[in-house]
Amino acid sequence: MKHKIVGKQKNSKLCFVCGMKNDLGLKAHFYATEGQELIALFKPCEEHQSYPGRLHGGVASAVLDETIGRAILNKYDTEVWGVTIELNVKFKKPIPLNEELKVVGRITKENNRIFEGTGEIYLQNGETAATAYGKYFKVPLERIADFDPEENEWKIIEKEDDPDEIEI
Ligand SMILES: CCCCCCCCCCCCCC(=O)SCCNC(=O)CCNC(=O)[C@H](O)C(C)(C)COP(=O)(O)OP(=O)(O)OC[C@H]1O[C@@H](n2cnc3c(N)ncnc32)[C@H](O)[C@@H]1OP(=O)(O)O
């Protein structure tokens, strides 16, 4: 299925998943779809392994967590932030290194204090390698972190190959 991309989310400087200057991080890019889902693209490398050649389950969990946690940003013009209070991941297939992976996240439930969502990691052959459910407590950013957008380089990073649509 083709997902039309309607926007790109911001990256940060040092976050393990989205930090562009975290040398050991995943440097994932996040694309909002017309269908109010969020798709992350990233390519894990040797440093992200558990068993040789296989992505560490904790790293797979981290990218699922962030993709679901960021999907809430698609819903509002102002930024709504959450901290993870629950994450359940099912690992269905080994996830290889050194190839681009797609992660999809969406919000499934929301009230004024909590939001919930689900996500999946897809292999290049279209198989679902992992699925997740996450629950997040809404917290204003100033309560989560001492956050200065300039210092944390919180901005949209455009790439030449940013997609207009993503097939999954
Ligand atoms: C900006 C640039 C950055 C780049 C990154 C962007 C990426 C974004 C990515 C996002 C993805 C990555 C995200 C990350 O990695 S976030 C990092 C991982 N998560 C955390 O650090 C969260 C740690 N927990 C807390 O800080 C506190 O527990 C919070 C703030 C959640 C509540 O503490 P607070 O003192 O405020 O409130 P309270 O204790 O009076 O509780 C209030 C109510 O909530 C209920 N409750 C509490 N805990 C739980 C629980 N675990 N399950 C179920 N319910 C829970 C509790 O029963 C109570 O209900 P009630 O009794 O009132 O009915």
UniProtKB/TrEMBL annotation:
What's its catalytic activity? hexadecanoyl-CoA + H2O = hexadecanoate + CoA + H(+); (9Z)-octadecenoyl-CoA + H2O = (9Z)-octadecenoate + CoA + H(+); decanoyl-CoA + H2O = decanoate + CoA + H(+); tetradecanoyl-CoA + H2O = tetradecanoate + CoA + H(+)
Name the Gene Ontology biological process terms.
Answer: fatty acid metabolic process
Offer one Pfam family short name for this entry: 4HBT
Question: Which Gene3D superfamilies does the record associate with it?
Answer: Hotdog Thioesterase
**Chief location bin:** membrane
GO molecular function ontology, one term from the record:
thiolester hydrolase activity
Gene Ontology CC: cytoplasm; membrane
- Assigned EC number: 3.1.2.2
Instruction: State the UniProt keywords alphabetically.
Output: Apoptosis, Cell membrane, Cell projection, Cytoplasm, Fatty acid metabolism, Hydrolase, Lipid metabolism, Membrane, Transit peptide
Localization (cell): Cell projection, Ruffle membrane; Cytoplasm; Membrane
Q: Which InterPro entries match?
A: HotDog_dom_sf (IPR029069), THEM4/THEM5_acyl-CoA_thioest (IPR052365), Thioestr_dom (IPR006683)
Domain Thioesterase positions: 53-129
Task: Describe its membrane topology.
Answer: Peripheral membrane protein
Keyword Chaperone attributed: no
> May I ask which residue range the UniProt record assigns to the signal sequence?
none
- What protein family does this chain belong to? Belongs to the THEM4/THEM5 thioesterase family.
Q: What is this protein called?
A: Acyl-coenzyme A thioesterase THEM4
- Originating organism: Melioribacter roseus (strain DSM 23840 / JCM 17771 / VKM B-2668 / P3M-2)
